[in-house]
Backbone:
């Protein structure tokens, strides 16, 4: 995977830019800026770059090795500097998000503004909607997938969500990935709850048909 594609190492430097967040948007922007000749520093609170590509999207869709390869290309060919386990926020506006457990360094945005020609904020969406917060045995799709990816990457020994019966609310692609993971983990009964008609589901007929074959109701 290349984030700086179809360009050569620039001969002249045009300035320095900070990118806050090394997810899909941050890495794509970093690649573009590096190609344009900017020196780029990337701040990321997680231990690796990739954001949801690395820590939420299942590895069979995007391998962690391909992401790491692209990041190393930015570092080695374009001298991009990555500051991992570093959280940046405005004074008085820090909040708790997924991934904060990895933070070792906290930086206030006000303290680095003067250091760069520009700052790009690409922190993504790490606050999913939770309609039943703090209810026992209820978790968001993002939280479920994030926990499993941490386990698969060796950052956690917990195998969340093992059980016999489960209900998944919603029919979008994250819901499909949750159901697939539950099937893999041996759930006996899985129910997908949706307020519309079957023809209106976001997953489409392909996934609906395949989940029916797996006895998902």
Residues:
């Amino acid at each position: 995977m290349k984030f700086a594609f179809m360009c050569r190492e620039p001969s002249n430097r045009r300035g320095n830019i900070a990118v806050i967040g090394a997810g899909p948007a941050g890495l794509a922007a970093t690649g573009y800026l590096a190609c344009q000749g900017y020196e780029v520093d990337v701040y990321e609170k997680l231990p690796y770059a990739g954001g949801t590509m690395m820590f939420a999207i299942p590895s069979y869709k995007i391998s962690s090795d391909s992401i790491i390869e692209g990041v190393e290309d930015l570092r080695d060919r374009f001298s991009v500097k990555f500051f991992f386990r570093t959280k940046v926020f405005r004074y008085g506006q820090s909040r708790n998000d997924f991934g904060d457990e990895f933070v070792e360094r906290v930086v206030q945005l006000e303290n680095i503004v003067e250091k760069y020609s520009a700052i790009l904020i690409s922190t993504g969406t790490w606050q999913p909607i939770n309609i039943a917060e703090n209810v026992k045995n209820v978790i968001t799709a993002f939280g479920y997938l994030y926990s499993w990816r941490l386990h698969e990457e060796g950052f956690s020994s917990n195998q969340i969500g093992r059980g016999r019966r489960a209900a998944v609310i919603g029919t979008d692609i994250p819901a499909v990935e949750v159901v697939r993971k539950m099937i893999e983990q041996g759930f006996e009964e899985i129910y997908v709850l949706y307020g519309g008609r079957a023809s209106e589901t976001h997953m489409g007929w392909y996934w609906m048909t395949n989940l029916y074959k797996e006895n998902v109701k």
Remarks:
- Residues 64-78 form the longest helix (15 residues).
